[in-house]
User: What shape does this take?
Amino acid sequence: MRDLMDKVKKNVIWKSIFRRDYKENVRDRAVAIFGNVFLHLHPVQVRESAVKLRYTWGMGGITFLAFIVLVITGVVLMFYYHPSVDQAYDDIKDLEYQVPYGVILRNLHRWAAHFMVIVVMIHMFRVFMTGSYKAPRQFNWVIGVILLVLTLLLSFTGYLTPWDQLGYWAIVVGTNMGAATPLLGFEGPFSEYFGITAYNDVRFALLGGTQVGGNALLRSYIWHCVALPLLSIILMFVHFWRVRKDGGISRPQ
Amino acid sequence: MKPLIEIITKPDNIAIVIMIIMVTFFTIWAFLQAFQNDKLKTSGKPVEGELDEDVDTWKPLVRIELIITLVVMIGLTLWSILVDAPLEEIANPTLTPNPAKAPWYFLGLQELLVYFDPWLAGVVLPTLIVVGLIAIPYIDINPKGNGYYTFSERKYSIVIFSFGFFILWLLLIVIGVFFRGPGWLWYWPWQEWDHQRVVFEPTTDLTNLIGIDSRSVLGFFMGGGVVFLYFAIGMIAPYLYWKKTHPKFLNDLGLVRYTTIMILFLFMMSIPIKMILRLVFLIKYVWVTPWFNV
Assistant: This one.
C-alpha cells in the first residue's frame, strides 16, 4: 500500500500538480495551503468557533454553494434556450420532454434559486444576531446588503425567462413599480415637471419598451446571465477578501 | 382543509414552507444561545467561543465544509427529483391572472400596496429598507455583543431589527403567499377562492372624519400638518426625553446619527400605523395633495 502511495506521489505528474506534501510541521502546512488556489481562500488556521456549526450555521458558505450550483446549472440551461418570444416557451417545453434530465436540470436551477434567497436571509440574521457587523466589519456588512439585493434581482430577472403566465405577470407587476418612481417614472409624483413620459422613464429603460415584450425578455436575460452574475462575483470576492482582512470569522471581543 | 393543502403543496410555495421551518429553527437556536451567553455573562464566566483556540483549516474546517456541501447537494437533488418547477401557459398579455402575484420574496412589498400608493410601497420604502440595512453598523454605537450571541446587551437593536425582519418582512410575505386571493382579498387557507367576491369597504381620508374635505385647501394643510407633526414630534420628543434620562448616550450618538436613526425608525413605524388606520379606521389617505397622496 505504502509502495503504491509512493509511486503515485513521487512521480513527475503528481509533483507538478501538488508541489508540497502536507506534513506535520507548521511551515510545510502553511505552504501547502498557500500553494493551492482553492485552499488559500482559507487562512492556514482558524478559530474553533469558525468550525463549530452552532456559531455560523455555515449559512454564508451555503449561500456561495447555492450560487455555484446556479452558475453550473444556469450555463447548461443556456445551451438549450433562446431569449426570444417565439422560442423561449417552447425551449422550456423541450427541456421537459426532449432534453435528457432536462426536468431535473431546470428544477435544480429553480429550487437552488429559492434556496439561495432563503439562506442569504438567514445568513444576514445570523450576522446581525452575533453583532458581527460591528467594528471592524462595518463595510463588509454593507457589501453583504448589496449582495442580498443582487440575489433578489438575479432571482427576479430569471422569473421572466420561461415566458409563461407566472413570470410574465410577475414582471408586469414588478416593473409597474418602476413607473411609480418619484421624478423618474411617468406615473410617479413630480415627473410631469421633468418631461417624463411612458417613453423615457425608468420602466422604459427596464423593459426596452412600454410593454413586457421581446426587448424586455432580452434585457432580463442579459441582466440575469451576464451583468448581475458578474457584479455579484466581483462583490463576492470583496466580501470574502474582507472577511479575511477584517480578522476572519468574528469572535467575542 | 382542501385549499390549505393545495396552497402549501403548490411547487413554488414549498420553498416558503421550507423558509418558515428553517427560519423558526434558526431563530430558536439563536435566541437559546443568546440567553445561554447572557447567563454566563451574569455569572462572570466567559461567553461561548471566548476561550477558543486556533485550529488548522486542513482538515477540521475543510471537512465540515465538505459535509455541509454533501448534505445540501443531497437535499437540493431530492427536492428537484420530487417536485417539478411550475410552468404555466405561455405568456398572454391579454389574459390577466387574478391575483397577479410578484415572486414570493417581493410579496411583502406587494402587500404594502394595500396601504400605500405605489411610489411609496414600491420605490421609497424598499429604498429606505436597503439604506436602513446599510446604515445599521454606522448608527449602532453599542460596542457590546460583538462576535457572540446575546440579548441582554443589545436589547433595543435586536427588538427593532426583529420587528422589521420577522413582522414587516417575513410575516408580510407569508400573508401574501397564503392569505391573499383574487382581488388581493383576504382568504383564510380553508376558504375556497371566489372570483366573483367583491368587498365594499367605504374607505375615507383622515380629514373627512372631522367633516373637512381632504381635497380642499384646508384639508390639504391639515393632512400635511398631521404628517409634519408625526415627524416633528417623533424627532423632538425622544431627543428631549433622552436628554433628561440618558444625556451621555445622546452625546455619544451625535446629532447626525440621531437624525438618521429617527428618520428610519419613523418611516418603519409608519407602516404598522398606516395598516391600523386602514384596517381599523378604514382610512385610505392621511394627506391628499395634487401631486401625491400619503
